[in-house]
Amino acid sequence: MQTIKTAAIVVLMLTVLYGGYVSLTTPPEPLPDEIEEILVIEDAGSGAFGTDEAVATGLQLDEPPAGVLSPPQDALVAESAGGLAASPAVTPHRPSAAATAPAPTFSPPGTFGSSFADLPPKLEPSVEHEAAVASNITKLPAVEPGASSVTPGPVDSYASTPGEFRMPDPSDAASTFDPSRGSAFNSDGTGFTMTDESPGTATGSLGGKPEPRENRGLINAFATADAMFAKGQLKEALATLSVFYGMPDLSDDQRRQLLSRLDPLAREVIYSRRHLLEPPHRVTASEDLVEIAIENDVPPQLLANINGVEDPVMVLPGTELKMVRGPFRAEVDLTSQQLTLFLGDLYAGRFEIAVGNDPAPTPGTYTVQEKQTSHVFYDRSGVPIPAGSPDNPYGKMWLDLGGQISIHGSPNTVQPTKNGCISVAGDYADDVYGILSQGSSVTIRR
């Protein structure tokens, strides 16, 4: 069985090899007579088109030689049957002078089997043909006889910008200025001058005495804060006016009106027992007032004073406390000799101070590093003056700001002292001590 399979495979391979040999050795069939006429066979055996022929796939001579008929270009059509294109043909080879060209036959466009050879010859255009073609061409509108022509000029013919700029003459402007709509320029050429002052606080001259101009922002703030106060919105009214506290160039009357509103608002919003800053805090059985104060960055003495608590440790569970969330900060103005307290952006009161030179305070930003109710004072010669002595300028309060700079009390209960550094009257020392905590920021400026 295996021998029969092997013999069959050998016979099949021999058959394939014989067929290939026959295909390679059999000469090609001769070309038809009509194809040989259009080809020129060179001696080397390669076929080429003559120099007077053109391929029918788009190439055409500009001027056809005598005796050659060029097909019209608009007669190229596609076969409609089956979507096949018409078979391309080659332009007939130019015959000799003795030969006569046979009359070509024509098949209607779209007829199956038509070719370029079947298209009608291109004849000389007649007058009727030119008229028919001209009737199908869209013409541009005729140009009006009176229309002006545009001739571009050279690049350097465009107008150029003047190279120098001249300032307007104030005298010329004054001569054409309407006095009913403003003020004319002064004879010396000066007029209104801008200043670096705020429009609401710029000063003018009235009777030789500088007078502050109307501050519309402050006037509007007064009206807004008064309306808020009437509605019981005391915290909002305090916030509205607090931003104007440090505004420079306020007149004495404007500052008086501002402070007449700020002081009672701060006293009611911050230091009364009304819950105007935070919701009330209900004390639990596991906490006391000291822990609550430390968590809110305020001294325990402050919460005790506000809430009327005599013993901060013995606060009954369930007690509602007025809450103040700190810390407070202070601004010391050495020129006006005032210490102003702030709770965030809210004005929180002010105290008169006295500025000493032992040591003299230096402008800058400091932090309260230590607090004491009594502190030994050392004079310039290094002699210590014990706390509680009438000669000790620190009184009953000493806040260390670092660098030997401090805020302290005074041995005088109603007057600050010029001895020491920054002094507050003795009656107010307890308040400052109970408001500023260790870590509070203090800014000193002139």
From TrEMBL:
Organism: Stieleria maiorica
Taxonomic lineage from the root: Bacteria, Pseudomonadati, Planctomycetota, Planctomycetia, Pirellulales
UniProt name for this protein: L,D-transpeptidase catalytic domain
InterPro entries linked: LD-transpeptidase (IPR050979), LD_TPept_cat_dom (IPR005490), Transpep_catalytic_dom (IPR038063)
Cellular component terms per the entry's GO annotation: extracellular region
Region of interest (Disordered), residue spans: 86-106, 171-213
Entry annotation: catalytic residues: H408 (proton donor/acceptor), C421 (nucleophile)
Listed pathway(s): Cell wall biogenesis; peptidoglycan biosynthesis
Top-rank taxon: Bacteria
Biased composition (Polar residues): 173-204
Biased composition (Low complexity): 95-106
Gene Ontology biological process: cell wall organization; peptidoglycan-protein cross-linking; regulation of cell shape
Family according to the record: Belongs to the YkuD family.
A GO molecular-function annotation: peptidoglycan L,D-transpeptidase activity
Domain L,D-TPase catalytic per the UniProt entry, residue ranges: 328-445
Keywords from the UniProt entry: Cell shape, Cell wall biogenesis/degradation, Peptidoglycan synthesis, Transferase
Pfam families named in the record: YkuD
